[in-house]
Amino acid sequence: MRGHSAADLLKGFPLLSPTNLAAPTEGPEWLVDLRGRAAVEAASLEAPSATEELWRYSPINDLNLQDFATVGAPTSPTLAQATLDRLVGERAATVVLVDGYCTSITAPGLPDGVTITSDSEIVPSNLPSYRSHLDALHDALTPALITVDIANGVTVSDPIVILHELAQDHALTAPWLVVRLGAGASARVVEIAVGGGKTLTLSSSQFEVGSGAHLRHVAVQLASPLAWHLARQVATVDRDATFESFSVGLGGAYDRVHTEVTITGSGGSSKLRSLYLGAEHQVHDIRTVQDHAAPHTTSDLLCKGAVAESATSVYTGTIKIRNGAIRSDAVQNNHNLVLGEHARAESVPNLDIQENDVRCAHGSTVGPVDEEQRYYLESRGIEPEVAERLLVTGFFDDALDQLPIVEVAPLVREVLSARLSSTLGVDHG
Amino acid sequence: MKRLIVQDLHANVAGREILHGISFEVAPGEIHAIMGPNGSGKSTLAHAIMGRPGTTITSGSITLDGVELVHLPAYARAKAGLFLGLQHPVEVPGVHFVEALTAAMPDRSTADITSSLESAAEAIGLNVGLLSRSLNVGLSGGERKRSEIVQLEVLRSSVALLDEIDSGLDVDALAAIGRHLSAAVSDPSWQLSVLAITHFRRLLDVLTPDVIHVLVDGRLVDEGGPELVSVLEAEGYAQYRTAAVDPFAL
Questions:
Q1: What ipTM did this prediction achieve?
Q2: pLDDT value of residue A176
Q3: Burial of A331 (0-12, 13-18, 19+ CB in 10 A)
Q4: How far apart, in whole angstroms, are the C-alpha atoms of residue B183 and residue A157?
Q5: Residues on chain B touching A391 (C-beta within 8 angstroms)
Q6: In angstroms, rounded to a whole number, what is the distance separating the alpha carbons of residues B149 and B163?
């Protein structure tokens, strides 16, 4: 194994004791190698700060890495089975990760041409350069890479479910998933994060959608309200391929989803949806990049959230249309309901258009529940709290109708409804 | 058997008094109409009785079956038996008819409410398929008015305040609604009371009022039986208006 001490990781954080961030040592040689290089990079990058655009409006300055420690070995999954039982329907494969370690891969009915493994010897291509200290820290600390490879022309009908269980209190977890679809392949991937304690998750999911392929992805974050959950999703979409991704953020003290989709092939398209509901002092932070790097590409984004009590949400989205990406069509919409006197929603659209012959539209709203709608419901005898819950649920309805993996809809609606009831102080039903 | 009694009602909107002391009574099974020119305060009266936020009652009393309503919020007045059919029913995306009415009547089952909704829609001539939509979303003006009456039918409120329920309806739809409301009024098990706000006689041709009240500049200035409609139609409201005093006329 390549030598690097935990102290190497901490140069960016000189105040840390070196005992809490021990890098895992197992895995294929390339991974051990990568961890070492990432650790060196982490040490050379500045610690994240809210003064950077990348972290603007976020509570990142409150992140104290000393509150967390890496986990040496996984415990047995406990929440995983209960969560899986709530997911009705058949699954093509189920991968369970506990604190980032893969504890099981069950794939009873996978068609030929599909490989799911946690110990791939193949070094992933397209390794991103580290723009943030935490990105490098993720690679330095990740216990395993889960790869899902689907060969050219293969269709996997049932969903592939990746369950991230955050088990140990104060664990720093760095799960890593790469999904690659060959030309003309089709698959549906669900990621669910569940956990009960104060944990820090730095997760990385990468998607490579080959030409003419179709990948549908849903990520549901149900971590505890104490958790810090920072997810990075990076996708490349090739010629005539389609990538649909839907993120649901309900848990977490700090829930961040950074999604970056680059359409690299002509005729490629992406459809991004995200939904969040915040209460108490939660912060939901959604960053998106719709990057058009080829002509005749389309991207469509809808991000809807509600913040109650003292919760905050941040939406920052960039549409980038590169030189040469003619006839590109990009849509970006962010709508926010502000339900509490102390709640706050920031919405920041950015456009970076380097081509003339394109279509680009964006819209953003921030405001309370519509008073006319509320009065209408109340004039039917509906109590104000119930009316508000109906209106907030209704606000999410059009987005929920677009969940690209319908099997997840009952779970998402159930947890959303339960959260709305507890947030808005009404019994369900 | 609920009697609506409004006594010396004063109400403000945006700090300006719009209603200057309104009094009338509607007995169970009676149909009353409020007629008046534009801007006379007709809609404000409906909203003051229903309890719309922003319409502030500064003095006076509204009782239903002896229960004082002026300090109650809108939903509590609705629970007490009031229904307001709005002039412009709003679209409520994502909230379905059945869902809303189940929330309004938590003691009744969804199946029961669904079947009540469907039979009311058939009786009133509203396409039953529209009931699977979100409230009023994509409905035409006329369909929205019919949807208000469908909801009234399911809620079986004691007193229906209907704010220009006739606008946007064709003759046949108006006749269907008139017949339906008349039946609810004379139904001994319901004895619906109606307070209909309208500009036009065409509603009153299909829903014969017991009493017509004339509202001008925030005051009830006259009342009469159905015969008053023809007088108002012929002469308008000018007779009720006090001549404006021109301060420069001296």
A1: 0.94
A2: 96
A3: middle
A4: 56
A5: 92, 94-95
A6: 12
Nearest one of A213, A216, A287 to A249, comparing CA atoms: A287
C-alpha to C-alpha distance for B37 and A250, rounded to whole angstroms: 52
Main-chain dihedrals φ then ψ at residue A341, nearest 5 degrees:
-60, -30
- Distant-in-sequence, close-in-space partners of B79: CB < 8 Å, separation ≥ 6: A381
What residues contact A307, with CB distance under 8 A and at least 6 apart? A277, A278, A279, A282, A284, A313, A336, A337, A338, A339, A340, A343, A344, A345
Q: What 3-state DSSP class applies to A419? A: helix
Q: A 363-382 residues with CB below 8 A of B? A: 370-373, 375-382
- Contact call for B93 and A397, based on CB within 8 A: yes
- What the block records as the tokens of A74 is 């996984």
Q: What is residue A425's predicted lDDT score, i.e. its pLDDT?
A: 66
pLDDT tens column, A137-149: 999 999 999 999 9
- Chain A neighbors of B151, CB-CB under 8 A: 380
pLDDT of A45 strictly over 90: no
Q: Does A427 touch chain B (CB under 8 A)?
A: no
What stretch of H or E contains A74? none
Spell out the domains of chain B, with CATH numbers in brackets: 4-240 (3.40.50.300)
Residues ≥6 apart with Cβ < 8 Å to A61: A49, A50
Give residue for tokens 């469907």: B118
Asked if residues A223 and A192 have their Cβ atoms less than 8 Å apart, the reply is no
Of residues A102, A188, A194, the one with CA closest to residue A142: A102
| DSSP annotation string for B16-67 | EEEEEEEEEEE-TT-EEEEE--TTSSHHHHHHHHHT-TTEEEEEEEEEETTE
Secondary structure (DSSP) of B75-109: HHHHHHTEEEE-SSPPPEEEEEHHHHHHHH-TTS-
> What residues does A188 pair with on adjacent strands?
A216
Q: What SS3 state is found at B11?
A: strand
| A chain contacts of residue B93, beta-carbon cutoff 8 Å | 394-395, 397-398
> A190-223, pLDDT tens digit by residue?
999 999 899 999 999 999 999 999 999 999 999 9
Structure letter (DSSP) for residue B3 = -
